[in-house]
Specification:
The protein has nine helices and seven strands. The protein has helices at 17-20, 34-45, 63-73, 88-96, 105-121, 149-173, 180-191, 193-196, 205-216; strands at 10-15, 52-55, 81-85, 125-129, 140-142, 145-147, 176-178. The protein has a five-stranded parallel β-sheet with strand order 2-1-3-4-7. The longest helix is centred in the C-terminal third of the chain and has 25 residues, at 149-173. It comes from Streptomyces bugieae. This is GDSL-type esterase/lipase family protein.
Length: 220
């Protein structure tokens, strides 16, 4: 089953930097990543069904950062559809921030559940996008930290249980799941991981296009 976007539907994208994509620097507030591509492609295909597209993502945010602003930035907009991509910063916080620590999957799940519960109670359609990590080679800089293969292996071990949390919450809430981690693993096997996300986390233009195409397959 797909989500039907009727004329006048309001869609809210939210999450971290992958969704933010410099939204405050863009004229329409959608940023320059997959939300913009989704809105553009939908508008091209369905000029008879205008949709209001919103983006409230903030770079660097974790589930715990979404919670205090959830009412003002998401619920008060009364969206018909909410699309969430969060988890990468929950994965790497302990290696990137001197004040950070490992966030257990149980805490991640509890916080994510608190985000979803009021939306489900309001009858909001939900799209949950798996956080993802591509197996690039070499070392890249992330803030003041250098992330090498060993760190990414640690991240992967931390991320996998959180991906499972997203899958379980999607089943529990009857949400549509965008299996982005698996999708990028398949794409990377053909074209190499750097083609889709040069640092393993933030999509390239092609990576954002892949996310947008997968997102659009969930709606009609």
């Amino acid at each position: 089953m797909t989500i039907t976007l009727r004329p006048g539907t309001t869609v809210m994208f939210t999450g971290d930097s992958i969704t933010d994509s410099q939204r405050l620097a863009s004229e329409d507030g959608l940023g320059f990543g997959y939300p913009l591509r989704v809105a553009g492609e939908w508008g091209l295909r369905h000029p008879d069904r205008p949709v209001t597209w919103l983006n409230s993502a903030i770079a660097g945010h974790k589930v715990r950062d979404l919670e205090p602003r959830w009412q003002a930035d998401v619920l008060d907009a009364r969206p018909d559809v909410v699309s969430i991509l969060v988890g990468v910063n929950d994965m790497g916080w302990h290696t990137l921030d001197p004040d950070g620590h490992v966030i257990p999957a149980e805490d991640f799940a509890a916080g994510y559940d608190r985000l979803l519960a009021p939306l489900a109670a309001a009858g909001t359609e939900l799209i949950l996008i798996e956080p993802f990590l591509l197996p690039i080679s070499g070392s890249v800089k992330a803030g003041d930290a250098h992330v090498d293969v060993a760190v990414r292996k640690e991240w992967r071990a931390d991320l996998d249980p959180k991906i499972q949390v997203v899958r379980e919450l999607a089943r529990e809430y009857g949400a549509h799941l965008l299996a982005a981690d698996g999708m990028f693993a398949e794409l990377a096997a053909v074209s190499g991981p750097e083609y889709w996300a040069a640092d393993g986390v933030h999509p390239t233009p092609a990576g954002h296009a892949a996310l947008a195409a997968a997102w659009l397959r969930l709606v009609a």
